[in-house]
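A reminder from the course coordinator: this example appears on the midterm review sheet, so study it carefully.

Given structure:
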């Protein structure tokens, strides 16, 4: 069943690779490694161009740690992103796929923007989970790291479904089963990854920055945020904007999500049958 439920940022690799090449990226920082699927692609790219990969994840899976042990050119920083990012320098591109909530993403973007300006690097960030379910609903892998005033009421066991703000009863819908929590409601201020991106863009533009954003509406969504004045901006635009808010992709994603949720429903039903 697992292969039916694609969810990884690696599904976007052709677009990511095209973006990195168009921007002449050498040094990459990755937030969120999990099993290391995307990390391996990024490491292969940096090896070819003579660059570097720094992967930030306080608690990756063992498969990633085993791979890093055999890949000395990859640096793993075992800290939360908001602690690790300020320690880095001279990063050409940021790949952000960590804790999918407003507070974390908004502050990650603030930090990487400050570092890019400090180091004279045009901002380039690729972010995952910018569409449903995390676009307008916070997801918490480590709720204790989120200040109380930014943390919505959440559940570690209840799940969500399309077209419904409130969570479903425990054990139903898309959920973390104790691995992550979901905000009890969808939408509203300071809730979700896409909301964080929009608020960051507004703040940056108010401060005089010219930034561009492309939204690829597939596999939980990928966003590409970049400096519109960069010497490579036109080349990156040529890569990403054919996918931006693509109506066909969005329709296919809605169909995929309905099927995704149906598979979860079937799995739950089978679990209940076996445990009866």
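Designed residues:
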């Amino acid at each position: 069943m697992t292969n039916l439920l694609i969810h990884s940022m690696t599904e976007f690799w052709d677009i990511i690779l095209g973006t990195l090449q168009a921007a002449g990226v050498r040094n990459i920082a990755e937030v969120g490694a999990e099993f290391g699927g995307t990390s391996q692609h990024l490491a292969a790219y940096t090896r070819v161009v003579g660059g570097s990969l720094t992967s930030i994840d306080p608690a990756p899976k063992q498969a990633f740690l085993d791979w890093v042990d055999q890949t000395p050119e990859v640096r793993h920083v075992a800290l939360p992103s908001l602690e690790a990012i300020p320690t880095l320098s001279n990063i050409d591109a940021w790949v952000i796929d960590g804790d999918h909530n407003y507070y974390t993403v908004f502050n990650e973007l603030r930090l990487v923007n400050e570092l890019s300006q400090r180091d004279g690097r045009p901002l380039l960030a690729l972010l995952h989970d910018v569409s449903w379910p995390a676009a307008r609903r916070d997801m918490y892998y480590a709720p204790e790291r989120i200040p109380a005033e930014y943390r919505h009421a959440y559940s570690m066991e209840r799940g969500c479904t399309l077209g419904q703000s409130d969570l479903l009863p425990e054990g139903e819908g898309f959920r973390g089963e104790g691995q992550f929590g979901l905000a009890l409601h969808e939408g509203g201020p300071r809730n979700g990854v896409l909301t964080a991106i929009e608020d960051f863009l507004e703040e940056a533009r108010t401060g005089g920055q010219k930034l561009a954003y492309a939204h690829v509406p597939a596999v939980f969504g990928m966003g590409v945020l970049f400096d519109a004045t960069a010497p490579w901006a036109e080349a990156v635009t040529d890569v990403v904007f054919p996918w931006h808010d693509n109506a066909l992709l969005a329709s296919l994603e809605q169909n995929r999500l309905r099927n995704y949720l149906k598979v979860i429903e079937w799995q739950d039903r089978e679990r209940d049958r076996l445990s009866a």
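The longest helix spans residues 247-275. The CA atoms of residues 26 and 51 lie 4 Å apart.
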